User: What shape does this take?
Amino acid sequence: MNNASAVGARPWRTIAVRLSEFLVVAFCTLTFALTVLGIGHSLLEKNAAGTRDFVEYWSTSHLLANHVNPYDSAALLATERSIGLPPDVSVMVLPNPPIALLLVAPLHFLPAATALWAWCFALVLCLGISVTAIRRLHSRPATTLDLLGYSFAPVLCCLLMGQMSMLILLGLALFLCWNKTRPAAAGCALCFCLLKPHLLLPFAVVLLVWAVQSRKYRLLAGSVIGLTAAIAVVLALDPHAFAQYSAMMAAARVDKTPIPCLSNALRRAIAPDAMWLQYLPAALGSIWALDYYRRRRTSWDWATHGSLLVLVSFAVAPYSWLTDQCVLVPVILHGLYLTRSRAIVIALALASAVLQLSVFGGGTRLMHSPLVLWTVPVWIAWYILAVRHSHAEPVSATAPGLQSSLGAA
Assistant: This one.
C-alpha cells in the first residue's frame, strides 16, 4: 500500500518540479528581456552620453585631443555638462591609471551620441570574445549555457553604465585561454587588467610567483612589452599624464568614497578614518592566495585554481563597484561547465535575475547602495556548490529542456 502510494505520488512530484522550473525560467527570461529593453531605451534617450560613466571617457578624450590636462576637474565639468551631465551630479574624472587614455583617446573623433553607440558595441564585442575564449578553453561546443554568461547581471549593469570593466574581462579571458599556448600574447593581454589593478591583487601576487617559479619568461616579456608600448603611446598623447594623474588621485582620494564593497564597508563600520583597514583584507587575501598556490603548485591550472583566486580577489578588493563583477564571467562559466546539478544552474539564473530586477527597479542608485554587498559572497557560495556537485547527474540528462530554456535567461 505504501509502495503504491509512493508510485502514485511521483507523477505529481514530477509535475511540481517541472512547474517550478517553468516559473523560474519564465521569471528569468522576463527579467532579462526587461533589462535589455531598458538598456536599449536608455541609449536612445536625449543626452544619453551624459548620464552614464561614458561621459568621463568622451570628455577626457576631448580634453586630451585639445592638449588640455585630461584630469582637470573644471575643464571636465564644462565638457560633461555640454553633453548632458545632470546638474545634480558632480564632475566625473577618469580614475583609471593613465594607460586608460590610450583606450578613450579615439572617442573624440565622433560626436558624443555616436561615440556612445560605438563604445557600447566595443563592450559587447569584448564580451563575445571573452565568452568564446572561455568556451574554447574548456573545449566546449557552443551551448545555451553560454547565454548565462552573457546575461549575468553585472554584465548587463556594466553595459548599462558603459563601464570600462569589460576590457578587464577581455584581458583575463584571453590570459586564461592563451597562457599555455601563446604565453607572450597572454602576457600582453594582462595589460588590460591594469585598468583597475586593485580588483585582482591576490590573483596578481600568485601570478607573479607562478611566472617566476615556472620560468614563464615569454609571458613576463609579453607583459613588459605590452605595458611599455602602452606607456609610450600615452606619453606621446600627453607627456605629463602620469604627473597629472598622481596629483588628481592625491586630491580626489577615490578610496575614501563610500563605495558599496566589503572592504570599504568594513572600514566604515569599525573605524572610518583608519584607511589601513580597507587594505587589510587584500593583504590577508594575498597571504592566503600564496598558501593556496603553494599547496597546489605541482598541478597548478589557471582555469581550475584561478577561478577561486579571482573570487577571493573580488571579496577582498579595497574598492570595487557592482559593474566590476562582469570580470567574474570566466568563473561563472567554469562553474556552469563543471556542475552537473540543474538546481545549481537554476540558482545562478535566479540570483542573477533578482539582481537584474533590483537594478531595473532601483536604477543606478542601487549600484551605490549597500544593498549590493550580498553579491560577491553569493557568487563565492554558488561556485563552491557548483564544484562540489561536479559529479552529480548531468543537467542535459535530467532536464533536456531546462538547459535550453535557462539559456534564454
About this structure: The two ends are 43 Å apart (CA to CA).
